[in-house]
Design brief:
Elements lengths: L1 E13 H5 L4 H7 L7 E13 L2 E5 L9 H5 L9 H7 L9 E3 L5 H4 L3 E3 L6 E3 L5 E5 H8 L11 H10 L2 E4 L10 E5 L6 E8 L2 E5 L22 H18 L2 E3 L8 E7 L2 E8 L2
Parallel strand pairs: 3-4, 4-7, 7-8, 11-12
Antiparallel strand pairs: 1-2, 2-3, 5-6, 9-10, 10-11, 12-13, 13-14
C-alpha cells in the first residue's frame, strides 16, 4: 500500500470561525490573518495505491462554481487536483474508489464537474465507486439550517444520478485494511479513515482536527454543530494516537502535512512534524 499527499488548492476562511472561542491574540500567532481576518487553509487529500485499487479520500472544492462563490473563499496558489495526481503519474480516470469523509463543499466539490459543453454536471471520476456514509448522505439531502450553505445540491445529486454511489453504514468498510472512525461533533456521521502506513497507522482527520493548531482540546471551530462532542471526540482520537503511536494527517493545515503527538504537562501536543 502506497500513500500520496494530494494538494487540491488553497483557500481562506474567517480566522475567528476557525478557532471558535479562542481569542485572536492567541490564534493569530498560529495562522496569521490578513486585513479581512481571513486565514490561509489547505485542501489536502490522501491517495492510496493498493494493487489494482486507487483510492482517493476527499477531493477539494472543485472548479465548477461561479466567480461570486469562489470570491467568498479567496482561492489562490498553483495547486490543483489534476496537477497533484499527475505529479504521481495518475489522472482522475484512474481512481477506482472515491471516499468522502463528509459532504461539505470544500471536501467533495471536486466530485462533480461540468461536461464539455457546460450544459450539465457529470461525475469527475468516471471509473470510481463513490463511498459515503448512508446517514450522512440522508442528512445532506435535507440539511439543517446551520449547515445548509455547506451542502450544495450540485455536489451531491449528480453522484446519485450517476449510479456510482455506494452508501456505507457504520461497521462496514470500503477496504478490508482501512478502518473508519465516525464522529458527530463537526457534522453528523463524518467518517475518518485509519490507514496502515509503514509500521503504524495514520488517521485522516478531515474536520475533526483541521490543523495542528487545533490539537489543544478547547480549540474547536465555530463551524462545528456540536462543539462539546467535537472536544470529546478530539480527546479520544488524540489518546488513541498516543497509545498506539498513530500519526495524524491534516486536511486543512497550510503548513504541516502530518505529525506525531505525545503527552506533555499541558496535555497531548504535536511532537514531530512529518511528511509522507
Amino acid at each position: 500500500m502506497k500513500l500520496y499527499s494530494i494538494e487540491t488548492g488553497r483557500f481562506k476562511l474567517d480566522g475567528g470561525a476557525m478557532f471558535g472561542v479562542v481569542p485572536k491574540s492567541i490564534w493569530n500567532k498560529l495562522n496569521p490573518a490578513d486585513e479581512n481576518n481571513m486565514i490561509n487553509m489547505a485542501m489536502r487529500c490522501l491517495l492510496i495505491e493498493d494493487g489494482n485499487r486507487l483510492i482517493l479520500i476527499d477531493n477539494g472544492i472543485g472548479n465548477k462554481q461561479d466567480a461570486k462563490f469562489f470570491g467568498h473563499y479567496y482561492l489562490h496558489g498553483d495547486f490543483s487536483l489534476e496537477k497533484s495526481l499527475a505529479a504521481h503519474g495518475f489522472c482522475k480516470a484512474d481512481i477506482t474508489d472515491m471516499v468522502l469523509t463528509h459532504l461539505h463543499f470544500d471536501h467533495c466539490g471536486g466530485s462533480i464537474q461540468w461536461n464539455n459543453d457546460r450544459t450539465k454536471y457529470e461525475t469527475a471520476f468516471k471509473n470510481a465507486t463513490y463511498w459515503i456514509n448512508e446517514k450522512h448522505w440522508q442528512e445532506a439531502l435535507a440539511p439543517n439550517a446551520r449547515e445548509k450553505a455547506s451542502f450544495l445540491k450540485e455536489n451531491i445529486l449528480p453522484i446519485m444520478e450517476s449510479g456510482q454511489l455506494k452508501l456505507i453504514n457504520e461497521g462496514e468498510l470500503f477496504h478490508p485494511e482501512i478502518d473508519l472512525l465516525y464522529t458527530i461533533g463537526h457534522t453528523n456521521n463524518m467518517m475518518l479513515p485509519v490507514v496502515p502506513y509503514q509500521n503504524t497507522k495514520l488517521i485522516y482527520l478531515a474536520d475533526a482536527i483541521p490543523t495542528t493548531a487545533h490539537i489543544p482540546i478547547p480549540y474547536v471551530m465555530g463551524y462545528d454543530v456540536r462543539p462539546l462532542d467535537a472536544m470529546n471526540e478530539k480527546t479520544n482520537i488524540l489518546k488513541q494516537a498516543v497509545q498506539n503511536n498513530y500519526l495524524l494527517f491534516f486536511e486543512h493545515d497550510p503548513f504541516n502535512e502530518m505529525c506525531s503527538v505525545h503527552e506533555t504537562e499541558k496535555g497531548i501536543r504535536m511532537n514531530e512534524i512529518l511528511t509522507l
